[in-house]
């Protein structure tokens, strides 16, 4: 048994890894899922343990119901509890709707929407008053500045509605649920020096990409007891993309 446990889906790299490290520094033991990046998952476990917290990496397919259940079940089996759930895993399809396949649609819905709902449902069985659920949305839920983002934007907009409804379901239980909506963030999957990055940065009020730490700090705040009066909110951390 441990004092506080956070679960981060898609946590082996990028924003997920930054969130895991930040929450470890906040005093959480960390369970996180990954799909294929075993070497990066093992490296993150070492970093968390160097911080002085316990770590558990869970290989799972977040696009399946069985994978979503596995993430929660293995966390509870290993740590005995869940205090915070960060639903970070997601797919980023880039295709216009007239070119999208049915498989494209199913994949993004299963991972970005159904996975979040199943993980939340399963985690709530083990979450007590003071629990925190944080969904990783996107500023593209509110503004799609160029073509090719209809599938992705739809799934991230869905998280806003889910959080608003679930906030009503969970409010009197003392459990909060919120959405963090990043703008363009410099990661290995979306580097600030990639082709087309300058065009995207041009839609941002600051004119620049953000950093993974910007998102991790917001998640950290929402996971604290101090944030108990914030629920059902979609909070942009986007450099003014939505301004």
Would you spell out the secondary-structure blueprint of this structure?
Elements: E1 5-8, H1 14-25, E2 29-34, H2 38-51, E3 55-59, H3 65-79, E4 84-87, H4 102-124, E5 132-136, H5 150-170, E6 176-182, H6 197-201, H7 212-222, E7 234-237
Parallel strand pairs: 1-2, 1-4, 2-3, 4-5, 5-6, 6-7
Helix pairs in contact: 1-2, 1-7, 3-4, 4-5
Structure overview:
Residues 4-183 form the Ketoreductase domain. It is a single chain. The chain has helices at residues 14-25, 38-51, 65-79, 102-124, 150-170, 197-201, 212-222, and strands at residues 5-8, 29-34, 55-59, 84-87, 132-136, 176-182, 234-237. The chain has one domain (5-237): Rossmann fold (3-Layer(aba) Sandwich), CATH 3.40.50. The radius of gyration is 17 Å and the shape is globular. α1 (14-25) crosses α7 (212-222), α3 (65-79) runs parallel beside α4 and α4 runs parallel beside α5. With 243 residues, it is an alpha/beta fold. A 7-stranded parallel beta sheet has the order 3-2-1-4-5-6-7, sandwiched between helices. The protein is 42% helix and 14% strand. The protein has 7 helices and 7 strands, in the order βαβαβαβαβαβααβ.
Describe, in short, the structure shown.
GO terms for molecular function: oxidoreductase activity. The protein is an alpha/beta fold and 243 residues long. Helix content is 42%, strand content 14%.
């Amino acid at each position: 048994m441990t004092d506080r446990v956070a679960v981060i889906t898609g946590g082996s790299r990028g924003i997920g890894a930054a969130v895991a490290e930040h929450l470890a520094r906040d005093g959480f033991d960390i369970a996180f899922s990954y799909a294929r990046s075993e070497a990066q998952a093992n490296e993150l476990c070492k970093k968390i343990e160097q911080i002085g917290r316990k770590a558990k990496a869970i290989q799972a397919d977040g696009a399946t119901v069985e994978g979503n259940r596995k993430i929660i079940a293995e966390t509870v089996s290993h740590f005995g509890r869940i205090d915070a759930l960060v639903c970070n895993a997601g797919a980023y399809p880039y295709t216009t709707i007239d070119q999208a396949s049915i498989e494209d649609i199913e994949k993004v819905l299963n991972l970005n929407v159904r996975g979040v709902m199943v993980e939340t449902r399963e985690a709530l069985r083990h979450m007590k008053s003071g629990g925190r659920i944080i969904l990783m949305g996107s500023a593209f839920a509110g503004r799609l500045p160029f073509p090719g983002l209809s599938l992705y934007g739809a799934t991230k907009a869905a998280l806003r509605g889910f959080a608003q409804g679930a906030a009503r379901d969970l409010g009197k239980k003392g459990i909060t649920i919120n959405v963090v909506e990043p703008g363009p963030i410099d990661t290995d999957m979306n580097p600030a020096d990639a082709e087309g990055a300058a065009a995207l940065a041009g839609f941002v009020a600051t004119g620049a990409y953000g950093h993974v730490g910007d998102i991790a700090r917001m998640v950290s705040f929402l996971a604290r007891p101090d944030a108990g009066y914030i629920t059902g909110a979609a909070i942009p951390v986007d450099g003014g993309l939505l301004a």
